[in-house]
Amino acid sequence: MAVENKFPGKDLSEDDIAQKIPLVAKKSPDHKTVFTCGGIEIGGPLVPVMAGPNTVETEDLIVESAKAIKASGGHFLRGGAFKPLSFPYRSPKFFEPREDGLKWLSVAKQETGLPIVTEVMEISKIDVVAQHSDMLQIGTRNMQNYPLLTEVGKAGMPVMLKRGYGSSLRDWLMAAEYIALEHDRLGMEPQIVLCERGIVAPHTHRSTSRFMLDLQVVPAAQEVTHLPVMTDPSHATFWQPWVKPMMLASLAAGADALMLEVHPDPRNAAVDPLQASSFEEFDDMMRAMRPVASAIGRTLDAGSNV
Amino acid sequence: MAVENKFPGKDLSEDDIAQKIPLVAKKSPDHKTVFTCGGIEIGGPLVPVMAGPNTVETEDLIVESAKAIKASGGHFLRGGAFKPLSFPYRSPKFFEPREDGLKWLSVAKQETGLPIVTEVMEISKIDVVAQHSDMLQIGTRNMQNYPLLTEVGKAGMPVMLKRGYGSSLRDWLMAAEYIALEHDRLGMEPQIVLCERGIVAPHTHRSTSRFMLDLQVVPAAQEVTHLPVMTDPSHATFWQPWVKPMMLASLAAGADALMLEVHPDPRNAAVDPLQASSFEEFDDMMRAMRPVASAIGRTLDAGSNV
Amino acid sequence: MAVENKFPGKDLSEDDIAQKIPLVAKKSPDHKTVFTCGGIEIGGPLVPVMAGPNTVETEDLIVESAKAIKASGGHFLRGGAFKPLSFPYRSPKFFEPREDGLKWLSVAKQETGLPIVTEVMEISKIDVVAQHSDMLQIGTRNMQNYPLLTEVGKAGMPVMLKRGYGSSLRDWLMAAEYIALEHDRLGMEPQIVLCERGIVAPHTHRSTSRFMLDLQVVPAAQEVTHLPVMTDPSHATFWQPWVKPMMLASLAAGADALMLEVHPDPRNAAVDPLQASSFEEFDDMMRAMRPVASAIGRTLDAGSNV
Amino acid sequence: MAVENKFPGKDLSEDDIAQKIPLVAKKSPDHKTVFTCGGIEIGGPLVPVMAGPNTVETEDLIVESAKAIKASGGHFLRGGAFKPLSFPYRSPKFFEPREDGLKWLSVAKQETGLPIVTEVMEISKIDVVAQHSDMLQIGTRNMQNYPLLTEVGKAGMPVMLKRGYGSSLRDWLMAAEYIALEHDRLGMEPQIVLCERGIVAPHTHRSTSRFMLDLQVVPAAQEVTHLPVMTDPSHATFWQPWVKPMMLASLAAGADALMLEVHPDPRNAAVDPLQASSFEEFDDMMRAMRPVASAIGRTLDAGSNV
Fold this sequence. Notes:
Four copies of one chain form a homotetramer.
Chain A: H1 14-20, E1 35-37, E2 40-42, E3 49-52, H2 59-72, E4 76-78, H3 99-112, E5 116-119, H4 126-131, E6 135-138, H5 146-154, E7 159-162, H6 169-185, E8 192-196, H7 217-224, E9 229-231, H8 233-237, H9 243-253, E10 257-261, H10 279-295
Parallel strand pairs in A: 3-4, 3-10, 4-5, 5-6, 6-7, 7-8, 8-9, 9-10
Antiparallel strand pairs in A: 1-2
Helix pairs in contact in A: 2-3, 2-10, 5-6, 9-10
């Protein structure tokens, strides 16, 4: 297919198009992107774990969570400051921290050294989110918000692109290409990690669950793209007791990173209380995952050589 | 559930919350929103047909299409000036007309009197799109782009909210609530039409089709919301020969409006050539639908009394 | 593809294979099977309606139902004598009538003249079911029970093949081919009607519904097979208020026949009380459908010329 | 719900119903069925691997396969003698071995000691299949063939019940109850293993794949039933390169057994050549799985103590 780039700004040359496009496609069987974010390598033998509460409820909560996550060996702190809520009203319990939440994340980073992953939902907030995070997260509902993808790409930072809950692998990769194109224009290798977070399916096994973790997409994606692929079992299963088996399964399936919700008091979490794991449950999972990582030639220990 | 509104700006009173929220919910079995857009009533006995090309390719094409649609009895002209493309590169054939396309739509309106429906993808373009259209369309990929929904709501214009292709009825209605809340703040009844455009499903029957038209959602939505509900069989089926039966079926199922792609030369359309209908096919559909509308106590003739 | 028939018994010749296989495939755009069952034509302008209770609960109930269905213009009496129940225990309310139910169906036929459609679940019961029915129904759970399909085919009677609730159009047609092959061996044209009865899908809109009526499959099937295609909105929607719009939509989409559950006292039906229509609801639907049938050039009146 | 058992033959007492029904339900958090089949324990720390070709093509092929599987540490030999084919015609390559295939399986068992798992499709063949196998397999297309389930249950042998490709967990468990009821009548604990083999889903990632492996069902099923749960990644993925990651993921997710297709010459397999693994690929998988089993406190070595 002859591809003509009509984007404003720098055009791709014919040679670029022939040799490089799609930017997210594997160019050889061993082609695999590895990049470093906040000092942590993604795409290599280390399988970084990104943990934290759904929402940055208070400064104390996020600092306390970061310390517990750090103590158990987690690698990134995640937490939502800007929250896409499906309904425009909030329960009395819920408070969207917005810029305050970003500052609290920065405090938690200072206290623990954990790099920060947090979601950006609007073009007008990219700058402020970028100041307080190491990786910009695009949520499932914005996977095909192309203007947002382009502007996030221009920030030149690592990006986690969550899969749209109804989207095909093809749509997901084509969305990643929007970001990759901006990274390429900045002279960077694409620094994107694809995150499977559950898809709609005929049967999800609980009346409270709306999604199914699609682990088949891990080898399917790795077959065609050089980008690292990760999973988010908390949002997929929406049920804490299934998170541990799906974390272990993701790791064994070859996921390059893992994300989950951890909260000091899950049953009282402001959002999604059924899916969050306690500090003890998180610690138990990390202990359970380490020998599995080792068994498949990977590691959860950032300093180790595999 | 006690609901507290934490939105910036005007707060809802406790009474409002108790009596009005969700704004999109039916308050009685006969509760049905009827509103007028560009002189055409939506939600009443008339079933308006919104037709036009996927993309406003040229001024001539859109004017020619508008005339043919008008001649066959269509009620709205639809066409994309801003186009969400799944991949950041365009084929040589494709040109995104952007503001030029909006002007061409206005020319077509002047020539034919047909009101305009067109998509808005970015907050920064709402003003210019609003100047050139009678109804703002939110596309399937932006159904849960909440900042966009809020800003589009603030424009105080009729909105067509396409269903996300993986979204539940509940998610769709909650997204509509974002727009309805802004309309309510402006002192308007909500002027929103919900558009089913095909969902992901296990079997879509052609390897080229990715979506299935969900007609069960028409009575399901009408059971719980007072908003009008319409369908878009072209995007759902992605195959022109199935558009006519699905138009007729949508009408018979109780859809309050219908949308389809019409192009003077479908096989050479810049986008989605397999799903567009020719002027002759459109005229044939309109002829076939009129007696069905009549049979169910509705009409396709804007001036008629049913 | 060179096809070799290894079936026991009469072999197909090379010529047969080249010209006739698959037997269920359309050989030309106008190729459409029309056959008569119990004096009622299927596949022509008439759209026969097959109505009756889920289960033949008592002789009185089925005779009363048959009279009401006849009075409202229904064409076939349907009712289950042998019932596939998903769980091996029965509520006190439920009684599987088995051979008794078949006899009661015959009484109802004698009283009203309505031909009978009823399900056969086991090879050992084909003979007795065939004695008391005009059309053998294969249920969704047995769509790929190939030994049953073959033996039912050998009975040389009209067959209604319900679509498996997770099955593709391709699987459905290939299952029909098992029956068609036996009809061909008997020197008959295939007398098979394909019945869409709802499929599993990500969103079915009520927590009580498990299925979605797939109307897109009506034109999709008619594009490739000459067999008539019908729908069963009661089982698909599992909710009576949606049955009427889905009956009308099925008719408008081009369905060649329609099936629904009708019960004298739906809320007290032994099985599936939420989906059954009362006699009054059935009569209302028949009245609503007649003008729609007429509008699309078909009819619900067995004696009429369209 | 008061449950009344109307089955012919021995009735359940009121006490049985109150305390035992559903037979497949967990009665306490630690309730887990363990049973022995052909000397191999299922449901305990051992995770038995059932391997072999899709079809028992020849005696040599099945004996050669059994030896290779045994050498690599596989625990059961699987292979189809009776084959449900979706289309009634066979390619010249395909030969359904039927009773001959059963005999060849017995030869392979004599040579290697591997117990046999093979499918039974018809009531009339249960006796002969039972003579030549240690575990009766019910295929996905027969999961709700209730007469077959009942008769297979009466054989009093271990049964593998594959999940219907469109079926919910609830339907699957209710189907298992049919078998469990017969085992209970024989005075046995239920000897049933549930096998997830891929379900229909909106996106399966290859145009050649029709199914998605649902690993979320492993913890979901184990939450509510005491029966062991296993997976079949070959049929689910339909693509050999994804089998290894999905085997490892299944193991890590807590599957109690694993099944896969192994063939001496996969590309020339009579059926499903894209999904079968070679002997070398199988050996590599077994080597990769052993340390993962050990890491999660299980084992692949029948003689070991964990």
